[in-house]
Amino acid sequence: MDLRGKVVVVTGASGGVGRAVVRELGTRGATVALIARGTAGLAEASVEVGVAGGEGLVYEADVADYHQVRQAAQRIEADLGPIDVWMNVAFSSVFAKFWDIQPEEYERATRVTYLGYVWGTRVALDLMRPRGHGVIVQAGSALTYRAIPLQSAYCGAKHAIKGFTESVRTELLHEKSDIQVTMVQLPALNTPQFDWVLARLGRHPQPVPPIYQPEVAARAMVYAAEHPRRREYWVGATTAATILAQKFAAGALDRYLARAGVDAQQIAGEAPSGVHNLWKPADDEQSYRAHGRFDERSHPRSLQVWLSRHRGVLAVGAAAAAYLGWRALR
Fold first, then answer.
1. Residue 319 has pLDDT above 50, yes or no
2. Count of other CB atoms within 10 angstroms of residue 171
3. What are the two backbone dihedrals, phi and then psi, of residue 8, each rounded to the nearest 5 degrees?
4. What pTM did the predictor assign?
5. Residue 284: pLDDT band with limits 50, 70, 90
6. Beta strands 298-299 and 211-212, pairing class
7. What is the pLDDT of residues 104-144, one digit of tens each?
8. In whole angstroms, what is the distance from residue 101 CA to residue 31 CA?
9. Which residues contact 3 (CB under 8 A, 6 or more apart)?
10. Are 273 and 188 in contact (CB under 8 A)?
11. Contact, 153 vs 101, CB < 8 A?
């Protein structure tokens, strides 16, 4: 799909991966509807879309509230026309051991991270199904397949999103719909989430290395929107390795993460920031942008992503090499 002039909705657009995604969409000349709660981040992100070559309009909404999402979508279609692509990216969570999370905090994290995707998908389908076409892209994670300590709320929601998405996809296939739903499983990323997610830890949270820049995720998400017939994309060698290891050695991963997973997610000698966006946006007064604090440790590109996109070419190349090797042996 050529995204130039297409109407694309992105939730969680004010910072992190969502902000990198809307910038990337701007380079494609898309008309981008930015949904989030934080007004400062949304305003800056919409300007960045325009600078990149697209058009960005702001729609403030809490994705945990179905009615707010529905009303935002209605305003988008009234302002911009039919929505062509809906990208669910927004989330919130709590960094803590399960028993240290209050029930209302767990419920809120689940409503934002899981039900936010459910409501976004429902609203998108209500608009797309009568037209018979459209694309929905779900931002996933390696943690969709393999849960880790200190992130039970996030991991549980991502696992649920995968199951929900698979169910919806089969229902669309059953009615022979041309609406495409794809999911992009992302690696550890250098985003501000580690400064704005509620943390009940002795030390400041961090992503588990290796870390990738959010633009790696953004390029993959936009590519998935342009090529949505693949049911799932894996981004980063660590994502692929994690998913495969979970399939073949889940018990060994349990024991490894029990030993190393808690310390690997915390910065030695630094306390949590005390800022969090669980109940209200963290960027009403300041913008957190796309990048977090780990620029010096983050990779700007992923060879695995290139290989994934060009697997057809690689297959032809492997076949040609095998044939030439056979001829040489003859």
1. no
2. 12
3. -125, 125
4. 0.91
5. low
6. parallel
7. 999 999 999 999 999 999 999 999 999 999 999 999 999 99
8. 39
9. 25, 28, 29, 30, 84, 85, 222, 225, 226
10. no
11. yes
